[in-house]
């Protein structure tokens, strides 16, 4: 039976073919229906499931964005990481995860972000010469990061900077109840990670 | 029972049962929700102009069943129901309101409904 392309609705041009899907530095190879006329291919439940399982099994990090942080921020990250008994990069990864999973989806996210950006601590951490840092990212985090960056039209590195500055500022500023509560939750989040690690 | 990414049960309904539930639904939105919950949707996409990932389908599950959808007749009408459904909603999972445009149709295998073919899942310009 001839297969239809649901997008261009042309008959007979849809065939099962091998395709490559680029995910960060890695390439996912699979076979799926492809329209030879318009180039659309089908992300079927089976393809999505296989890709998910492939991504989760990847041992290596698939992107390595390079956010820029001031010396003050670098120093703060070193100190905070050592307080929790972990290293700087894992702490940054926990910050990214906390920010994307627990903060950005909140109804009061906008006002929270504004409150953080008004803090003296935030200013201190953003002023001055910035130094690059490579942050290796795993598949599941990349997926979350991708959706966030797509929504805000920003690069991965920028989103990481945002997550780190947000978490670092809430840790240093305790006068606003909402921020204090977030700081407490973040500390629990890091402690859970440190225990598991 | 485990859950997939969008919370769909890993053991899906059989085609016959899916069709039965599909026919019981009162609105197109209920039918789309059923396809999402049952992981019976396919996103057609292109390398140079990709559709959004399925994360953007999540808000649909919490829309009221009477939320407005629009039907249009399909060009070809083959391998599925003869109409496409369009839906506009907002994605808010990243702290920014993104207007989303979804377009797709329900695919058939003989007399059975087998899923939802998504032609567009993108920012509503």
Q: How would you characterize the overall build of this protein?
A:
The complex is a heterodimer of chains A (197) and B (125). With 197 residues, chain A is of the alpha+beta class. Chain A contains 8 helices and 5 strands; from the N terminus they run βββαβααααβααα. Chain A has 2 domains: 14-57, no CATH class; 68-196, no CATH class. Chain A has helices spanning 45-57, 71-84, 88-103, 109-117, 120-126, 139-152, 156-172, 177-196; strands spanning 14-23, 26-35, 41-43, 68-70, 130-132. Chain A starts with 13 loop residues before the first strand and ends with a helix. The mean pLDDT of chain A is 91. Chain B is 16% helix and 34% strand. Chain B contains 2 helices and 5 strands. In chain B, a hairpin with a 2-residue loop joins strand 4 (98-109) and strand 5. In chain B, helix 1 packs antiparallel against helix 2. The longest helix of chain B has 10 residues, at 15-24. The chains are: A alpha+beta (197), B alpha+beta (125). The interface between A and B is medium-sized, with 32 and 36 residues.
SSE diagram, text form:
The complex is a heterodimer of chains A (197) and B (125).
Chain A: E1 14-23, E2 26-35, E3 41-43, H1 45-57, E4 68-70, H2 71-84, H3 88-103, H4 109-117, H5 120-126, E5 130-132, H6 139-152, H7 156-172, H8 177-196
Antiparallel strand pairs in A: 1-2, 4-5
Chain B: H1 15-24, H2 28-37, E1 41-45, E2 69-73, E3 83-91, E4 98-109, E5 112-123
Parallel strand pairs in B: 1-5
Antiparallel strand pairs in B: 2-3, 3-4, 4-5
User: What's the number of domains of chain B?
Assistant: 1
Biggest sheet statistics of chain B:
5 strands, mixed
- What's the end-to-end separation of chain B, in Å? 39 Å
Low-confidence stretches of chain A: none
How big is the Rg of chain B? 14 Å
In short, what is this structure?
By secondary structure, chain A is of the alpha+beta class. Chain A is 56% helix and 15% strand.
